[in-house]
Amino acid sequence: MGNFIKIDRKMLEWEWWQDINTSRLFLFMLLSAYWKDGRYKGVEIPRGSFPASTADLAKATSLTENEIRTAVKHLKSTGEITNRNHGKYTVFTVVKYNEYQENYNQNANRMQAVDNQITNTILKEDKNEKKRKKDNIPYAEVISYLNEKADTKFKSDSSSTQRFIKARFADGFTLEDFKKVIDAMCEKWKFNEKMKQYLRPQTLFGTKFESYLNLEPKDKAHRVENSKAEIARETKDEEPEMSDEEWTEMEAGK
User: Fold this and answer.
1) What is the maximum alpha-carbon separation in the chain?
2) Which of 47, 127, 237, 244 has the greatest CB tally within 10 Å of its CB?
């Protein structure tokens, strides 16, 4: 923090407000005062104070050095500031700095906490987005193809579904491999009332994925020749073994 200061409207009633040079210098001092304890050239500078020379103040406020000396005299006469000479520079102190800025700093701390929370949330979302981009896994395309071929309505953003797909891509399989498995198992199970329930991500993309991929597909002529009933009879006694993932989910009551 320390990028802002608190200015009370009562300053408009302050006796030096109409004195342009004095009020200008005092505002500059409020802005320049350290908002927390610090050091300057080996000297401890407490909160509400700051080091500067007359020349520095003149340059910063566009006043002459004589105007600075007069304004400092005014501010010291009414107890607004004190100063302590250190040779080539002076440490100026705004006497009531804590009174002027106390409430602000309390609010600033709360604002900082909120800012930190927002920043952390943004960073987390950005990290997750970068992770999704880094994965570069076509979840949507895989599930869209499955839904089209199996007449299903699975969602590509399901964490469980993505877990199975990601695992197979991590094994080195490709999008074309997924499509081949979907085609092969839809041909085998789609028209079987008992087996079509297994046309789902956790079964197709589980640990038996490679086995499904290596099934010999029937040629087109054979598919046309076989009726739905024949395909159903051919697979009526089949039931896929449950993968480790499916056992885990079943035992968890999912």
Assistant:
1) 109
2) 47
